[in-house]
Amino acid sequence: MLRHSVRFLVYLTAVFLASCKTTNPVSKPEPPLAEKTTPQDTILSEKPPVVVKEPQKPEEKQPEIKVTKMAPPLDIYEFRAAWVATVANINWPSKSGLSTSEQQREALKLLDFLKENNFNAVIFQVRPQTDAFYDSQLEPWSYFLTGKQGKAPEPYYDPLKFWIEAAHNRGLELHVWLNPYRAHHTTGGEVSDASIIKKKPDLAVKLENGMWWLDPSKQGTQDHSAAVVMDIVKRYDIDGVHFDDYFYPYDSYNNGKDFPDDISWNTYKSQGGDLLRGDWRRQHVNKFIKRVYDEIKTEKPYVKFGLSPFGIWRPGYPQSVTGYDQYEKLYADAKLWLNEGWIDYFTPQLYWRINQEGQSFPELLGWWERENRENRHLWPGINVGLGGDDKNIDETINQIMITRGMLPESKGTVHWSIGPLVAHDSLAIALKEGPYKKRTLVPASPWLDKDSPETPQVQTSVNNDRLHINWNHPEDDNIFRWVVYFKYEGGNWDYKILDQGTKSYSLQYIVGNKKKKMEQIGVTAVDRTGKQSEFKALKVN
């Protein structure tokens, strides 16, 4: 009884002190403070923003804290990404030859959209046609960037570096998207002297639709494309490397004719090769995929490698599926790559509707899941370009919900592409008010790193009816997110995800007409591979 009386006196004292600071009654509880605002992006400047610390207010009587170890109270993992295509200026920049400031403003608008709508990753195309959206010694500046292949932006900046920093400032992972074999696109302007077609003509062949393609069977092709990947991995602070469905080209690019690799094939046969031509082609692609995965993991194990192949492996798999045969036409044995775990995440392009006969979205997703023997992330690609009317919005949301239900251990979706999301306000609003209402963490990849980060050291204080939470961590440089969990008396757990650099958060200490106090809080550290530290629930009395 004595302890309860003391607490009641402390509470009355706090109420009295609070009443002396304002004459305006509070009609409803103040909401939790928003996350720290995104650092201001400075165009053409690498100077860090100046952070002005507010003076600390006098602390009031502090609550008693009791620590309990437990599992994190909520599952807050889901991969939410969108592709940003640069080939043919599909998504960015809106046209080639824009000024540096115009390019940067367009980029920030797209990244702001993703942050505001609770996405957590962007898949950014940096090599659409053996060229570069970054400063490269291996390949020329992209025509789609400046309007002339080999010409740098003016005034100079490095677009990839700009995108990475701006994405990370907004709590987004950035995955670089490369086309490993396409040497020149029909919309890519003139073939310049800086192009690989001129520099290494023995590697490239011309297709009848005007495209040029690197011969995947050539060792020089594999060495060059692998070197491009690793150059980016070594020099840039990326979170992932991503290939899409362009391995051997679609046969329509060559007017239905076979890929023109007779020279390579005849050389192989003359040296005693005994594989069938299709198996020989697939063997080279398989070798390249495995090589890229191994080299990335040797250099930076935390950098994820993802693939988004055509959504059907072969007609008849599963039995009712009909359509294009990537195994036989693109010489891509995507099932093998998934079976063997040569990727960290797998994003088949399932661009069909749920009830589409022959290519049903859930039926194909279920088949790929059964082939996921190494338990890698399976985050399907969906087509949001169907439109912004009610029917298409329902289709998009239903596909997200089906994915969550079928893949509860690692939820996630990749959206093709960011263009329709930005163009259709109704679609973006429906996502944010529905399945993307709250921010999420990128699912952890435990095979990349078995060790979890240490638990932050947390301190709390109460000031002006707000609970202030501060924390420290011995390995700040290796932490990329923080999660603050909190629970009021009689309520459910809630959470807030905060970005690297944030070390404090503030919440209303007492809420509602019934004066419900904060009951428990906890803070976890999240490392680069998505693992959370051990959760310690702090009971606030």
Automatic annotation (TrEMBL):
Region (Disordered): 23-64
Keyword Membrane annotated: no
Alphabetically ordered keywords of this record: Signal
Residue ranges with Basic and acidic residues bias: 54-64
Domain Glycosyl hydrolase-like as annotated: residue spans: 78-374
InterPro entries, alphabetized: Divisome_Glycosyl_Hydrolase (IPR052177), GH (IPR017853), GHL10 (IPR003790)
Record-linked PANTHER family: GLYCOSYL HYDROLASE DIGH (PTHR43405:SF1)
Protein name: Family 10 glycosylhydrolase
